[in-house]
From TrEMBL:
Pathway: Carbohydrate metabolism; hexose metabolism. The keyword Ligase does not apply. The lineage of its organism: Bacteria, Pseudomonadati, Planctomycetota, Planctomycetia, Pirellulales. It comes from Aporhodopirellula rubra. This is Aldose 1-epimerase. The active site is at H193 (proton donor), E332 (proton acceptor). GO terms for cellular component: cytoplasm. Keywords: Carbohydrate metabolism, Cytoplasm, Isomerase, Phosphoprotein, Signal. GO terms for molecular function: aldose 1-epimerase activity; carbohydrate binding. Belongs to the aldose epimerase family.
Amino acid sequence: MTKLLTLTFTAIFMTVPASTGVTAEEAATSTRLHTLKNSNGMEVTVTNYGAIITSMLTADRDGNLADVALGHRTAAEYIAASEKPYFGAVVGRFGNRIAEGTFTLDGETYTLATNNGDNHLHGGNVGFDKVIWDVKSASDQSIHLTYVAKDMEEGYPGNLSVSVTYTLTDENQLVVDYAATTDKATPVNLTQHTYFNLAGEGNGTVLDHEVMLNADRFTPVDSGLIPTGELRSVKDTPFDFTSPKSIGRDIETENEQLALGKGYDHNWVLNKGVSATELTLAAVVYDPATGRVLTVSTTEPGVQFYTGNFLTGTLTGKSGKTYSHRGGFCLETQHFPDSPNQPDFPSTILAPGEKYESQTVFAFSAR
Ligand code: BGC
């Protein structure tokens, strides 16, 4: 099941500059694709470059399989893509934004890359999406990947040992388990950045998809998409997805927060009930055209619902179709953006001796 990436994949990799985090030699010898397959024919393909999910074959209401995950055809395209969409990647050490790329921890101020305007995004210039992970074990339905981020890598304190396990169950669930330990206190916020189009990657926009988010509140942002600190009710706003509605229904409404996000690009505060860390429902997405349903559950307190607002129609996907504006959506389960600077948000600080553990389940069905 595990195989070397194709010749084109590795050959193009040879021209990749070292600043991307991968040397040509590493790329040529260390990248792999591994396909998970269950008894229903569902398939998920993963590469150890960025722990990226490169494809997800799921059935529609008639049992026809289609690839519902946006992605590139070659490793070189993942590295060179001008828009840097983070297709399918594991994002870290800190997913989402940290204001002005700085935070103070235990009296020490740390400076991170500002790779998103004035702010730090998705772990910096060479985040976990741009490094080669070790494949510790792989079987027909599971793959376990690890990565050790060095002390001060991308400016973060502490040697951080991270693992991600993808498990495909016979119930058509992709279970993503994250774990991490550190030798110095450090912020950690890992997430999965797959863009879904339940009609199949490259098949138009996702504006007709119907979405339910299990969240009564969201975190409004400033012009740099940094949360203001407020937890605002979604009631009577375009941000109310407590009952299913199409993504497109309110997305063009005149609204300050929609204008700032250029659409939906916000963190919703999940309704967690009694235990803040138990696995709870985050979102249900339904594509009326194909009947595919994606149900997302997570132990995390938040989810970034991002509607592909920065896709411009210039990237060509795996099957040769271009990815249109809003041609995919992400449900990035996470702690809230900028948590290291927001004392009232749930803490993202991992201390030595503690274990970071987080689980998200992407379950597929059709109706
Ligand atoms: C962010 C978007 C960003 C996208 C790709 C999302 O998590 O919220 O603003 O464009 O990732 O980087």
